[in-house]
Design a protein that fits this description.
This protein is of the alpha/beta class. 44% of the residues lie in helices and 11% in strands.
Length: 318
């Protein structure tokens, strides 16, 4: 397994003027992100407008991005749906393509009980050898994965991490402790999401990793045991975010806090309307046009664009 690192960018999906996937622009974006702090790239996640993409588009996007930058950074395929059999199919295809891991969202709309959530992830994990990151985002799925359920999932060998987007640093701490006990804290940090050239081995004594799923909570979640973030803001502030995480784990907490505070206008400004509306606007403002959005999402209003521009200037982005 490849080390997925600490800063994972959830890539937008570029579209052309007809709102068809622009695969050439996607490659350019992947190169840009790999050059600007991203340790791994998540392809066809929520930020990539996966609910508005069809099966063929997602699979081709996995292939194209893996072929283009897979030798430089690991590629995580967004394969989760609210249908267990479809999720298994997507995940197996991603494995055949050569993806390095899969991000699997908690089933949405169905609102399954905790036992159903557990069995869903267990079935997916048993269908593949890919490392699986569980994606907990109750604001979109309608159901929260509890720490007790996450602890059960962490016992499955190839379920290696949680993208914790509950919006709660307290729950992040509960996830870390429930899945690891105190062993997540009695090793040197950062704990790696997979076995890498540096960092503790997880073969004999697995450590289950937790990533912040919210840019604005990255630093608070690091303080309670998260190892990094699966980020949106890193499209435009990747180097700064990587530096913040590095400074924290070097023990330079005040420097990390300074970066966090400087980036806070971006962290908040990008999410004043549904993601990924404003991150596509922000990319245009730095000269990287990734096209529009597919319905039911719509482009930012002039007022939202103006507020975003102010936030970017306050954060020193442009």
């Amino acid at each position: 397994m490849r080390d997925l690192g600490q800063l994972v960018t959830a890539m937008v999906t570029p579209f052309d003027k007809n709102l068809d996937v622009d695969y050439d622009k996607a490659v350019k974006l992947a190169d840009f992100l790999a050059d600007n702090g991203s340790d791994s790239l998540l392809v066809a996640g929520t930020t990539g407008e996966s609910p508005a993409m069809n099966h063929e588009e997602k699979i081709k996007l996995f292939k194209v991005i893996k072929a283009a930058v897979g030798n430089r950074v690991p590629i995580i395929a967004g394969t989760g749906t609210n249908n267990t059999q479809d999720t298994i199919k997507y995940t197996r295809e991603a494995e055949e393509i050569g993806a390095d891991a899969a991000l699997v969202v908690c089933p949405y709309y169905n609102k399954p009980p905790q036992e159903g959530i557990f069995r869903h992830f267990k079935a997916v994990a048993e269908s593949t050898s890919l490392p699986i990151i569980v994606y907990n985002i109750p604001g979109r799925t309608g159901v929260n994965i509890t720490p007790e359920t996450m602890a059960r999932l962490a016992e499955i060998p190839n379920i290696i991490a949680d993208k914790e987007a509950s919006g709660s640093a307290e729950q992040c701490s509960q996830m870390v402790i429930a899945a690891n006990g105190m062993k997540a804290y009695n090793r040197y940090l950062p704990v790696k999401a997979c076995v890498g050239a540096s960092g503790p081995s997880q073969t004999a004594d697995k450590v289950f990793s937790v990533y912040s799923g919210d840019d604005s909570l990255t630093l608070p979640m690091l303080s309670v045991g998260a190892i990094g973030v699966i980020s949106v803001a890193s499209h435009i502030a990747g180097k700064q975010m990587k530096e913040m995480i590095t400074r924290y784990f070097e023990g330079k907490v005040s420097e990390a806090l300074e970066i966090h505070n400087r980036l806070m206008p971006i962290f908040k400004g990008l999410f004043t309307v549904t993601n990924p509306v404003l991150i596509k606007s922000a990319l245009r403002k730095i000269g990287f046009d990734c096209g529009g959005l597919r319905l039911p999402l719509v482009d930012a209003t002039p007022e939202q664009e103006t507020a975003l521009g102010i936030a970017m200037r306050e954060a020193g982005i442009c």
